[in-house]
Amino acid sequence: MRLLLLSALAATTALAASQDKQLEETIIEAFGGVVNLTMNVTGEIAKVAGSDLSTALPVQSATTNLVNYINNATAALNKFGALNLTSDEALVLGPYTQGLAYTVNASIATLIGKKPDFLQLNLGPLVITSLQQQQNASVDFSKAILGRIPPDIYPVATAINSQITNSLQQGLDCFNGMNETCNATPVNASRTLDYAEDTGAITAAAALPARATGAVAWAVVVGAAAFAI
């Protein structure tokens, strides 16, 4: 009887480990897909010319593909139910999240640079709608991941995620006329360190080496996580 119980326990543990690994791989794959499709959108935005409406049509198609992918990725993640990531698994996701933040930031910067062309084509309202769709999809996608992050890592994970939402909001503000300068704020990993220190997720002493080298280590320091690239 004891042998049967031990066997059942071992099988349950193995199944849980397998599900954890599958969740991690699904998230990583989703990040990769979103990055690639965002880069496609950026490439199409860069081609837009205010004198030629046809140059803007591929942007809408690329954006639709991106939003659909994000929504499908969110649905796939939601199928994992209440399964959560361990701290080690969450740390693995760090570079992927920061990489996506930089990709979105670059895309919005390109879009802002092309604002005169979009306005010349009378496509400002369409850009706003598109950005809102991306923002809504991104919020749902983020929730599907952040809800699985352990408490010790969660504060800094949300700081990285905010870089993505902030970039999208900058684009919306620009095309809504709420930002006269319309300059996209470059994503800076030091923002994450500042937030981590403010929330107590990392000590100033622990952050100092990362600031000195210009790079942030993905590690748990004195029981707290420091996120960045």
What does this structure look like?
The protein is mostly helical and 229 residues long. The chain has one domain. 72% of the residues lie in helices and 3% in strands. The protein contains 9 helices and 2 strands; from the N terminus they run H-H-H-H-H-H-H-H-H-E-E. A two-stranded antiparallel ribbon has the order 1-2. Helix 1 (2-46) packs antiparallel against helix 2 (57-78), helix 1 runs parallel beside helix 4 (94-113) and helix 4 (94-113) packs parallel to helix 7 (154-175). It is elongated, with a radius of gyration of 20 Å. It starts with a helix and ends with a strand. Keywords: Signal. InterPro entries: Cell_wall_mannoprotein_1. Pfam families: HsbA.
Low-confidence stretches: 10-15, 213-229
Helices, by number, come to: 9
- Overall mean pLDDT: 81
Fraction of residues in β-strands = under 5%
**Into which percent range does the helicity of residues fall?**
over 70%
Strand order of the largest sheet: 1-2
Structural shape: elongated
* Domain module count: 1
Could you describe the largest sheet, including whether it forms a barrel? Answer: 2 strands, antiparallel
| Distance between the amino and carboxyl termini | 50 Å
Protein name: Cell wall galactomannoprotein
Organism: Zasmidium cellare ATCC 36951
Keywords: Signal
Pfam families: HsbA
